[in-house]
Specification:
alpha/beta, 7-stranded mixed beta sheet, 5-stranded parallel beta sheet, 20 helices, globular
Length: about 475
Amino acid sequence: LIKGDPEHPANFGRLCSKGMALGETLGVEDRLLSPKIGDVSVSWDAALDAVAEGFRSTIDRYGPDSVAFYVSGQLLTEDYYVANKLMKGFIGSANIDTNSRLCMASSVAGHRKAFGTDTVPGAYEDLERADVVLLVGSNLAWCHPVLYQRLAAAKEARPSMQVVLIDPRRTQTDALADMHLRIRPDGDGALFAGLLSYLHANRCVDWDYVSEHTSGFEAALQVADALSPSELQAQTGLSGEQIDAFYALFAQNQRTVTVYSQGVNQSSVGTDKVSAIINVHLATGRIGKPGQGPFSVTGQPNAMGGREVGGLANMLAAHLNIEDPEHRALVQEFWQSPIMAKKPGLKAVDLFRAVQSGDVKALWIMATNPAVSVPEAQAIEAALAKCPLVVVSDVLETTDTARWADIRLPASGWAEKDGTVTNSERRISRQRALVRAEGQAKPDWWIINQVAQRMGYTEGFNHETP
């Protein structure tokens, strides 16, 4: 029987359907229980030596950018950290990216443009303190049900709270909404640009905040003012009355939180939409205060933990910038590493295209199944089929990705792991193993350390615990 922890400050014991079903994932059914080269079970030493030799020989022959890691929001933060450290600080390439790229890339870029770092400036408690909560491109009831339950309880306790759903579809979340704007797909950028213009015209700009804490306001306003009422209605698919009612609601309620998710992020103009949302909060000083702010909710269980330790191809640990020489020097000094990647590496989709083209010749996939989850699945499988070395670390014996692996490494399952994860509000949760690892399964951080040591990086990877 699985129960939530009533003292945990994020969920207070509430569980979603996945959480309630976690007990069904325990046991040995379908588990990969020993390392395998091809279909032959081998010792850990043999498997680790083969991985290390495969990556080392590829690097020696073709250079650091000929290898890559594709990692996952299912990893613990400690796993993410050593993988990032090995690739960027010892191999010397930034070719490490994550399935979190698929759900969070637009938000990461928007945060970095606005704040200089990929930092979410809010907490779950803000949703309960707000007078208005905007849900943009988010079916919170299905995709973040524990957070939805917190919001529903807050609205029941304080019925004056207004919830606005901005989504082309009618979803289960609509049951909580006081206003549903059935916006045209990708009309969000225009809606929030128009809101910026409205706020300025109606004297709602916090000029003290804007002058003290922001730059670029006039340029943003110029773009927003160029959008005529007819163009705004055409791009959003909303009537003038709907737009005016929404704008007035935002203008009149300082304590406003804008929650956005995949309907914003998974778009060819996702970064622009994120910027438009953040801009209206900056213009009105509604950020960094209780019940106020833009709030990105993530799509992977430890997407935030991975972002904190630089698990994306264009970042370094601690939200530092890989393009900044001073940031690179700071991380390299801390790691005492022999080399440091100097430019962003291949991002998820481009990474697999580089595998297909032959530019990446050795690929290590950890805790994810890209043959199912990455766009253009047939192209992903074709790339894996022609890659000279594919290593897969997973809990399962067989997945669509694992069947293309030359080497399979049995990783510990969720209940067998020890470390931390970080949620959307940047709260770090301690996770401890509940059961002994099945078969010969090992934690991901241990596997990465062992390979790094066999590649000659013993001093940088002599960790004994997570």
